[in-house]
Amino acid sequence: MAKIKDTAPAGRKLIIGLPRALLYDRYHVLWKTFFRELGTDVLVSPATTLETMNRGTARAIDEMCLSVKLYLGHVEKLVGNCDYILVPRISNFGIRRYMCTTFEGLYDICRNLFRESGQKFLSYNIDVQHGLDEESAFLTMGEEIGFSRKAVSKAYKKAKKAENEDWKNQVHAQELLYKNDGLKVMIASHSYVVNDAYIGKPITDFLKNAGVTVLRADVMDRKEALKQGSRMSPTMRWELNREIAGGIYENRKRVDGIILLSVFPCGPDAMTNDMIIRRGDGTPVLNLMLDAQSGMAGVETRLESFVDILNFHAAAK
Questions:
Q1: Among the four residues 62, 100, 148, 202, which has the most C-beta atoms within 10 Å?
Q2: DSSP string for 246-282
Q3: Half-sphere exposure (CA, 13 Å, Cβ side) for 234?
Q4: What is the pLDDT of residues 218-235, one digit of tens each?
């Protein structure tokens, strides 16, 4: 990989592009803090729109899930506007702590699909089962773009501290929401789905406008979430799905209903959501699948019906 002095023209900082999709919501504090501590500029793609989805869909094959199609649209927005686009490769965090295979191949997918653009891509490799943890991955990545090991190590430690503090604040803020009066609905979904401006935010906005307190299943201490997720299914292999399942298992008695929000055709969600429904304890569940079709009319009808059912149950108590 080229050194920093070969990539950024003299007189300006290196620009690192961050696609606002997939793992961005989970790691944006870590990434932004890390690169800014190294003295580089960060360019984030704009919020998702219908155009983003359409352009990403045009780049993708049919078998790719909607979240990947959105990601490709975000990558395209950044192509030609930055020196590197960050596309990490994350395989696993240990035994039975795997990521979806998409996150293993995404770097190669992007390099192949945009190979004629001349755009450079940057990555880091996490594969704990083969001795590659997050810190060592960041150290290697930072050195590859020309920074000293000491500077990279310092930047990573500051970035990790900022990330941990941000997550702690998110968990605390959600704990306060559990104390709200009225209907409370837990959305069990990947953060890159529920927090996406185009496919997820309209759903949370609709619920909030209906007077519902919206909570996320995955917003809790992550170590505890993995522990509780193992209680629901000791053989679940996907890290993010186990966190979501753990949040449901830990907090299901504190909400009036649960929405399983997925995108088509997500394999891990298809398996884990079915397990969650079968192991339900009576809490009303809405299984909502999103696809690339535009329009919210059908989704809003199902949400409205679900809220009516929850209100009926609450009145009957």
A1: 100
A2: HHHHHHGGG-SEEEEEEETT-HHHHHHHHHHHHT--S
A3: 0
A4: 999 999 999 999 999 999
